[in-house]
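[agent] plan:
  1. take the single chain provided in the ticket
  2. run structure prediction with default settings
  3. attach structure tokens to the ticket
  4. add a short note for the reviewer (M.T.)
[agent] executing step 1
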Amino acid sequence: MAENILEKLKQTILDFDEDAALDAANEALAAGVDPVEAVGALADGLNELGDKFERMEVFLPEIMLASDAFKNALSVLEPEIKKRNTEGQKAIPVVIGTVQGDVHQVGKDMVATFLTTAGFDVHDLGVDVAPSRFLEEAKKLDAKIIAAASLMSTTRPVQKDLIDFLEAKGVRDNFIVLVGGGVVTQEWADQIKADGYGQDAIATVEIAKKLLHVA
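[agent] step 2 finished; step 3 output follows
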């Protein structure tokens, strides 16, 4: 039963079907499926589409539709995940966004979701986020981590701008800055003195936990 529902969730992503994704997410919770496993099935669908995108078998409009389906399902699953993760403890706040000038969101959404499933209190600022807004929201939420994604070579320098901005404001040491995205490498992260680099969503969660010394 659970396996069928998980497969159905994945298929809604591959079919770019927002309504079906919402229905499948509700079905998963009603059937007692672990919401983290449900998100994993959705992620499998997005990863498969990502491979197809690289092979030019699908294109950006389809990826955006799949992202919308993912968000629909997540709107049902995420509250349950947060409830489970925050019972009896205060979740660590994280601010995440795609940097200024960049409107790509699928990869960033994946990272935000996996951080949520890992128990972080994730505040997604969306796309085209200026360095000043990253700082404003991080201070407001008392965030420990700022995660900045870039998916375009022309916007990658904004990750450096963010770190330079934090240094100029005298608050660089107050935050762990993680960078990632399709055009980002460990070499780049080292060059701009980021605290960590996430090659993918799972790696980002692991480096966040390591830097915060949490299990």
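[agent] step 4 note for reviewer: The CA atoms of residues 162 and 168 lie 10 Å apart.
[agent] ticket updated
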